Amino acid sequence: MKIRILGSGTSSGVPRIGNDWGQCDPEEPRNRRTRASVIVSTDTTTILIDTSPDMRAQLLAAEVSNVDAVIWTHDHADHTHGIDDLRQLMHIRNGEPVRGLARPFTLEQLQIKFPYAFFGRKLYRPSIAIAPLPDELTIGDIRISVADQPHGGITSAGLRFENAGKAIGYATDFHEMTDAMRALYTGLDIWVVDALRRAPHPTHPHLASVLQWIGELAPRRSALVHMDQSMDYMRLAAELPAGVEPGYDGLEMPA
User: Is the pLDDT assigned to residue 124 strictly greater than 90?
Assistant: First the structure.
């Protein structure tokens, strides 16, 4: 089992529109960040997490043209607004809708915002067959566990993936660590985790808090994602403790 970071950036990406690189070195290719998304896969199963606005380019770069399921962590634009590109996956599947999963509130919001994707319209068939995301399920040979994470006024889905005695955690878009989250993220081989910036933020974790949680939870290897233009790759790589690294678009991590 492995996880591929499709996008390691925050909602505005790096650089921001206006060619704003902030404190990131534009000569370092790992500082160019698309919006947050990952793929977890084995030899027989592929699961996409979120449909970022950059999904088309991300899937092309990853050479992925079909998935067994899409899981949405929450309904914010930077995690959902590439949803139309699932229509092409539906065509590749000979018209079979892509399987989708989301917590009930997220599911409801997605259907309100993108009804045609789920219900079709006139000459267009539905491209997604969505269902509620339960606390535990198995897709192919990957077992998935879920915990709800505080994210401002809503929650996001925290995810744990297990296969052949290995465990990968994915935690994006949250601002505090609950007991349920601690249980979900204990005993991980890999933890890919949101670390927006160094300064505190009201709805995302900042670097110091993430490093504290990594110290407590002790994953074997961790990668930071959902980073803004203040988080320069080489500067971070030089200061992070052993076993922790800045994630980047295209990074693949085997469990």
Answer: no
